[in-house]
Fold each of these.
Amino acid sequence: MPKISSKGEHMPASPIRKLTPYADQAKLEGKKVYHLNIGQPDIETPEIMLNAIKSIDFKVWAYTPSEGTLSYRKKLTEYYNKLGYNISPENIIVTNGGSEAITVALQTCLDSGDEVIIPEPFYANYNGFACMGDVIVKPILSHIENGFALPPISEFEKLITEKTKAIMICNPNNPTGYLYSNDELSELKDLCIKHDLFLFSDEAYREFCYDNREFRSPMHLEGLDEHVIVLDTVSKRYSACGARLGCMITKNKEVINSALKFAQARLSPGMVAQIAGTAAVDTPSSYFEEVNQEYTERRNILVNSLNKIDGVFCPNPGGAFYVVARFPIDDADKFCQWMLEKFSYNNQTVMMAPATGFYSTPGAGKDEVRLAYVLNKQDLKEAMVCLEKALLEYPGRTESKKLKAESL
Amino acid sequence: MPKISSKGEHMPASPIRKLTPYADQAKLEGKKVYHLNIGQPDIETPEIMLNAIKSIDFKVWAYTPSEGTLSYRKKLTEYYNKLGYNISPENIIVTNGGSEAITVALQTCLDSGDEVIIPEPFYANYNGFACMGDVIVKPILSHIENGFALPPISEFEKLITEKTKAIMICNPNNPTGYLYSNDELSELKDLCIKHDLFLFSDEAYREFCYDNREFRSPMHLEGLDEHVIVLDTVSKRYSACGARLGCMITKNKEVINSALKFAQARLSPGMVAQIAGTAAVDTPSSYFEEVNQEYTERRNILVNSLNKIDGVFCPNPGGAFYVVARFPIDDADKFCQWMLEKFSYNNQTVMMAPATGFYSTPGAGKDEVRLAYVLNKQDLKEAMVCLEKALLEYPGRTESKKLKAESL
């Protein structure tokens, strides 16, 4: 039998999806499972976008240009220039989801063995994308105690080698929800200029900033045009994860020209998705206001409930729709699996993503879990009751953490 | 300024799309351009598929499972089992276009530096996909004189090293239109078993076989279950290139399990595309009969017209909707560019793909051009008149070839 690649062997399984068989089994046994594991929002897609799909009037479902249709890129330019990105359609390559934007950016900028520095915990699939291109991820620990703020620049400096080609951030952050400040971005700017590095800015959650905090992008920084590559998607912005429509944006012409060759190899992004994406840019601002109000309330419920649970600590993040919380447990992977396999309360349980999958440093995040607040408020409350009971029952509960919490 | 990757520098530009700026310029100058360069059929997408798009009734455009929805994979199973593939939904991973099926298969089976043997000329983007994963393509020349039949197995044997992991074929072939026979596939089977190699079978053009010739897949061969990976797409089958919907199929469980990890990293194929793809399986057989009738007539027009032109030789292929023809020219790249930049006849010209882009051996295919018969018959005829005039006028015309043709 022919052997698969060592890449294929070592490719990490998704920490978000790997517990799915246990959840399926729990459901077969009649348990209700609250899905806080995955970033699939329950928010409705804007009607304007769905209507655009229903109104297609072409006869041939044809390829579009590899970089995306000009009409979609023009419309996107409108959207981004309202944010002050000051771009033109030539700065955009439309991709099959944000995922493809990330892989194309990595391929364009990093060779096999090259290194990208990423503050951890980070979006787990960065590991997978890096594995595809034999790129090395160099993680820098950020800490739950300060809400996962940007680690000191001196920590980045320590990791920079001849092989370092880029820094990657996700802002607001998945999985921590942390929203980077202008000062933090300015520090990264100086670092990237000093060491001539690309700055990849994954902005999938741009629209989700709470408490009147303002989103800032490296695109807003002067003098960084040749360094910044924005990686974006409509998935979360319009609750349209199934559209598989993203883009990469850069003012670096050499990067665009090279990225276009990768885009040409896979021919085209989806045509219907681009039609819908074009319409989506006209989504009324009231949609986002309502959605952000809803997410703010959910975040408040989740963070308050979590911090009330004995032994649990959860920072209050400024954006996205995730939190990473510390639980009084021995092993987040074991705990999350146990929740599905062994535990139930009123025939209900909660599915969460062990934070270990979001760290690259072995052993890090072992007592942390990512929760996505993508369920309605009532379900979130029920899920938190369930979680509290589970933490009391879980055989791997760590007393030290419990005591620490009690002493607060 | 940060430097792009050497991969990004060396990534080949699409030979099909790289002349586009010249075509755009020709159109600006008011010329009519007959596009025989690209495999974008003008055939209408089945109504059943378009109606499925218009009838979507979901509220949240959500992720689907990474391997594709069960309902789509079940429906696909129906389609493939009618062909005698004898598969179940677990053998399928749905992808964003056939392109993603190819990249996932390569990543799953080949590491950086590993080799895949491909008869050339081959689909140009295989070079790009290989470049993405630092995989080495080892080409084997097939020859226009015998219609680009499978080269002798002894030629494959000569290329096999420790690094050889797979053989890749495209059947019916893009760019040559050659349809592999059962005997040829059997020879490949023996070779793959002897050397324990994967056999990648790109079957994008399966539905397009002419003159009552039967399509045969390596899936029909016994004893090859662990070796065969079928790479497929709905793009050509249903004239739905813009759907970006493909799949990989294999009975090798280790391959499926590993491929699923790559699929999980990019989260999901498109949801609307899968809904449309599910409907498409019920496309009435009359659709395919009409389409094949149309393509047969077009092929006959194209092949007959080409062979009537002084100095031109074109085999009569059994499938797909391409031909590779030999022209009495010094350099196909120069000629195709010249056609757009310098030539016009009645204010018309023809865009074709130089065959050089479909060869990996330097210098091969220099007097060959790929033509796609994706235009209606009248346009094809006009394009051939245009081409004949162009070959008479082209300053790089080679007299030796002309003489050879005259002596036939």
Note: The longest strand of chain A covers residues 164-170.
Amino acid sequence: MDTVSLTGKELAAAINADTGARAAALAANGPAPRLALVVATDDPASAWYVNSLRKAAERLGIACDRIDLGAEASAETIRAELAARSADPAVDAIMLQTPLPDGVTLDDVSSSIAADKDVDGVSPLSLGLLAAGRTGFVPATSEAVVELLKHHRIPLVGKHVAVVGRSNVVGKPLAQLLLAENATVTVAHSRTADLAAVTSVADVVVAAAGRIGLVTGAHVGEGAVVVDVGTNEDADGKIVGDVEADSVRGRASGLSPVPGGVGPVTTALLMRHVVVAAERARAV
Amino acid sequence: MDTVSLTGKELAAAINADTGARAAALAANGPAPRLALVVATDDPASAWYVNSLRKAAERLGIACDRIDLGAEASAETIRAELAARSADPAVDAIMLQTPLPDGVTLDDVSSSIAADKDVDGVSPLSLGLLAAGRTGFVPATSEAVVELLKHHRIPLVGKHVAVVGRSNVVGKPLAQLLLAENATVTVAHSRTADLAAVTSVADVVVAAAGRIGLVTGAHVGEGAVVVDVGTNEDADGKIVGDVEADSVRGRASGLSPVPGGVGPVTTALLMRHVVVAAERARAV
């Protein structure tokens, strides 16, 4: 079977064209939309990602402040910074980069991000609005998976989607979004007894566990669609996904590449959220 | 195969014994714990349920105010009432009865319930705290399903649980709770293409769709456990579940009865939440 590459580049470009125009319209009538990127890690992969976000913002006419709290920052320090940026009318959007310092969890600090600036949808209120089907910002990676599938015209209504991974930032919010698309959704994870049995009956498999080579050809039914959300660093320092592409190719009808699949769409959606937050703030 | 009846009466009695003692301890040092039941419907099944909650509260030494806004109440009226009770220090806990008036949805009004009084866990913040694995009140029916399974020593770790129904009050929060128990979770619903294919491979099937006879023997694998969350009124005015018990019995290894299964545990957990809310408020 031919396996179509479900690239995210064209979709990201289309989203970015719209975002750039909206950012320019805002900047014509006031300050440019402004994103505060709060960083409390010296992880190199994270630094690379933060840098790519800053470049994306710059290209789109979005101002981006990087606030570096250091890898030793306490939960109190991070909360205080997030609260200050939440209260600052010059800041339209806030994103807290992970990983966080040892002993600090996202749950410890995320509620200090005001919901109307929480463009990556990490705060409990944002997650609750999502669970209730209400209007908040959706975690960008989850939204990117759904948008990528729609862009490639993969049907979801009544289809069975298996999500591998149950993180608060990807797996769980993605399950909510897929239910809202009328898919039947299975969430599997590290404690799932027989992963292949669960995933091989699904029409769509989403790998979002953060483990290299977790999803192989044996996990995928003939003709299924596979979306790879993983961004792992391999032994050579190369970014690779959760899917063993070689064994899946020829078996799946579609597979999203890493890099170039979910990643660029995620960045594009984050930047769109920044512009939306700014539009809402200025309209008040 | 013998099908064990997974009754909830013993578990409810054990929870109630603890709740009654804690309510008495609170009342010995101040006012009794106080629940405000806000009602905006003239639905007879709802009236029956509200009455049973009032009786349960009375038996446990919990004060219970029924606030009747009428079946024509607007969203504004309901929101204002919920906000007033949220601000009233004499009220420890608030529960909004459904159904709501035509044109008013739970999502329209639930955010007016303060999270620390939201004992049925319906507000977006409560749902988000649940999604993030944090401490808020969990919707009582979902919690009752998990507690009933644990009480009857049904293993959940690594097991595949199929939840039929994706409501914000049962299906979705139940999926979160089951994931937290390390189960693999599938959420199926009215748009699921082949329900029996999805449910018949599960170790546990939870029927929570609100449709009489939706889950039959054909939907249940040999030896699986079936939990019936449905409380539907049949043509004779009798309360019946979502499970066709006759065809499931002999095939499942366990089945929760309706009435007498999830129902009494739900009421008991709601009352426990009221006492917990009061304990937290008094400790401040």
Note: The radius of gyration of chain B is 19 Å.
